[in-house]
Amino acid sequence: MSKDMSYAAVMARRPEIMKNSAGLDFSKFESGSIAFDYERMMKEAGFTIEEIQKIQSEHGVGNTPIIELRNLTALARKIAPQGKGARIFIKDEASNASGSFKARRASTAVYQAKKLGYKGVVTATSGNYGAAVASQAAMHGLKCIVVQECYDSRGVGQPEIIEKARKCEALGAEVVQLSVGPELFYTFLTILEETGYFNASLYTPYAIAGVETLGYEIAMQFREKFGKDPEVVIATNAGGGNLTGTARGLRKAGAQSKVFAASVDLSGLHMASDTQFNKKSFTTGHTGFGMPFSTWPDRSDVPRSAARPLRYIERYLTVHQGEVFYITEALASLEGLEKGPAGNTALTAAFALAQELDQDEMIVVQETEYTGAGKHIQPQLSFARENGIEIKFGDPKDEVPGKNIILPSHPSLIKANDADLVHMRKSLIKNALANYNVRPTEADLEFLAKETNSDLEFVKKAIAEL
Amino acid sequence: MVKKGEWVLIHRNVLEPSERAPQVPDDTKKVPLELWVKGYLQEDANIGDEVTVLTRTKRIEKGTLLEVNPYYKHDFGKFVPELITISDQVKEIVFGGADNE
């Protein structure tokens, strides 16, 4: 008898499909209520830093260079108050095997798949993670399927996503492309069920543990070069794994660096909307992912996400699309570095933040990504213009996502805006209570305090306000 | 006529508008969820025919035949003059002035 392949039937088989494809029984970390043992999950299912370093060094990943951006720092100092203008650095993650930090995440996930005896890996991503999984799968001789959200109903695709599909195919993967919609997850489940392959999710403990080396390396590299940890590490934030892994790695190194998140402000655009899909000029690193994933991490494609960014974020900075384009051009013109869009979101926030900090302080933007056709400011802006987005110089604070892109008429107009972290913490608590629909236990309250990097008093007050 | 064994692109609807997930926004609910995948054609066919392909991971997929030897057409887009303006501006602020003329 053939299986019922309707949307509802496949979604109902989700727990079974996920369990078979994850090689991990998440239920053993559960409390039966809101709380689960996050640290135990990371310890038992993750890897030690030494294990990850070994896996990564054997597969073209890690030990990426730190580059000081002296001219961009000089630009910040020209417009900063006297004595301000912290030194800005980037960690050149584009030099990883697949051209982005995602190689770290894929290295451990694919290693685990091979170790557990799976014949192939499947991943649902429109981002650099697809190429990262394809690259690592090629090295391990595993089959690879990447499921992408790519086109709107007119068949028009985001140039950046099309480039990522090309790269996945170049690295030997099968790419399944879909039109806009959250039912990508449905298709993903049907492929997992059909193939019996490993779910190389971005959000497993393996994947997040793979990023811990990034934070760890930053601490080691700065201690060796400058004899101290950087004051601030900024991560572009979408699903939260980049930031979570980096922050955990910094902590494992004993670093005191503050960890800030940065996202492009795309407020007002609906991520699952067919007509708005091609009105945005950023496919990731934006608030459309960053906000929902921060305030409810378990919306991901595993039962419990290992990416839990609100545990680590000390400030959440948002920037506008036009500002990121400006800084990307400045990076090429002043530093001779042509990089893809992802890390430049954090770099834009760093440029603004540097002007608040003293000149002897150091800020690290912890990633860069490769660039190429489609995945570059020129095609991004050209595509926006073709889709009716007005591009002009002015004050970026007037930018309306989906309507215009305002390039700053002067770099002094580039500002990083603080998102309301208190509100985000309360949202997470509200989401947890709504999703589990239980009366929170003492363990739940303590868990929520950790989840929100707050304390019991804050959690109790937030619940009382609901 | 496209020969069996050629590398092709096919298309099919995964979910019709009536089958879409409840949480999907209204504009997306009006259109089907579509899928594109590539593979080796399993029988001689014409563009527009319903066909079967064998994908890179040896999966069987069915759909409408769209293209033979599909290739990527993305590029660096049309010239965006604003980028030169930004380049000139940042260079002028950092390195500009009479000393550099």
Structural features, described:
The complex is a heterodimer of chains A (466) and B (101). Chain A has 466 residues and is an alpha/beta fold. Chain A is built from 18 helices and 13 strands. Chain A has helices at 7-12, 14-22, 38-45, 49-57, 70-79, 102-115, 128-140, 159-170, 184-195, 205-226, 241-252, 287-295, 321-335, 342-354, 377-386, 421-436, 442-451, 456-465, and strands spanning 66-68, 87-91, 120-124, 143-151, 174-179, 198-199, 232-236, 258-264, 315-319, 362-365, 390-394, 404-408, 417-418. In chain A, strands 1-2-10-7-8-9-13 form a seven-stranded mixed sheet, with helices on both faces. In chain A, helix 13 (321-335) crosses helix 14 (342-354). Chain A starts with 6 loop residues before the first helix and ends with a helix. The mean pLDDT of chain A is 95. Chain B has 101 residues and is of the alpha+beta class. Chain B has two helices and four strands; from the N terminus they run E-H-E-E-E-H. The model of chain B has no long low-confidence stretch (mean pLDDT 95). The termini of chain B are far apart. At the A-B interface, helix 5, strand 4, helix 8, strand 5 and helix 9 of A face strand 2 and helix 2 of B.
Mean pLDDT of chain A: 95
Q: Main beta sheet of chain B, described?
A: 4 strands, antiparallel, barrel
Hey, which two chains have the biggest interface?
A: A-B, 67 and 41 residues
**Total number of helices of chain A:** 18
Radius of gyration of chain B: 24 Å
Residue runs with pLDDT of under 50 for 5 or more positions of chain B: none
Mean pLDDT over the residues of chain B: 95
Oligomerization category of the chains in this entry: heterodimer
Low-confidence spans of chain A: none
Helix content range of the residues of chain B, please?
Answer: 10-25%
Distance between the first and last residues' Cα of chain B: 65 Å
Class inferred from helices and paired strands of chain A: alpha/beta
Query: Rough shape of chain B?
Result: elongated
In total, the number of domains of chain A comes to: 3
Number of domains of chain B: 1
User: Total helix count of chain B?
Assistant: 2
The CATH architecture classification of the largest domain in chain A is 3-Layer(aba) Sandwich
How far apart the termini of chain A lie comes to 48 Å
What form of chain A results from the Cα inertia axes? globular
